[in-house]
Amino acid sequence: MKNVxxxxxxxxxxxLILRNCLENPNVKSVTTIVRRTSGLDHPxxxxxxxxxxxxxxTIASHFKNQDLCFYCIGVYTGKVPRDEFAKxxxxxxxSFAEMVRQNNDNTTFCxxxxxxxxxxxxSKLMFAKDKGIAENLLFDLKFSQMYSFRPGYIYPTQLRxxxxxxxxxxxxxxxxxxxxxxxxxxxxxxxxxxxMVAVGLHGxxxxxxxxxxxxxxxxx
Length: 220
Fold this sequence. Notes:
Distance between the termini: 18 Å
Structural class: alpha/beta
Order of helices and strands: EHEEEHEHEEHEHEH
Radius of gyration: 17 Å
Strand order of the largest sheet: 3-2-1-4-5-6-9
Strand content: 15-25%
Number of strands: 9
Number of helices: 6
CATH class: Alpha Beta
CATH architecture: 3-Layer(aba) Sandwich
Largest sheet: 7 strands, parallel
Low-confidence stretches: none
């Protein structure tokens, strides 16, 4: 049975991963690092409220003895200024991952990245470039197992307030039209979360999961 640590567990994908882990018989305990409580009460769950995502030294003890990590923090392009986007996408990831690595020798790390992430550093697109930098930082830390998941559009299977007009349109068009005509344009939130948990718990020969790989993944 695995000890799991999650950050981003109040977000769309992180919350699904959290619930999956709490219900999963292969998971012994779940530690979440959050800015605000989820309101969940479960014997497996320990919520650690923390505000400074550039420095986790004051809560380092909670990073010890963690077998599996799910990193699900992210921000939509255009929601914050350029420097803030880089801080959230790169700096937060680096600080959290280094704390996990410093306190564990055999952790599997699962990173919620995004379609188009460019590890070559040549992309002119902010999202692709910053996600690529974050991926490089993570792979360089030499976790026991490292997996990056690169979904395209994520179709929310639960009701939510859409972040902008583009996502409102995509929500309407995705299931009846786009998912059939362009199947690899996106993936449902539940499929993404379930795949991340299954890969994290059971392993896989593939280290980077593009949208197609996520969509076609079968948990054996």
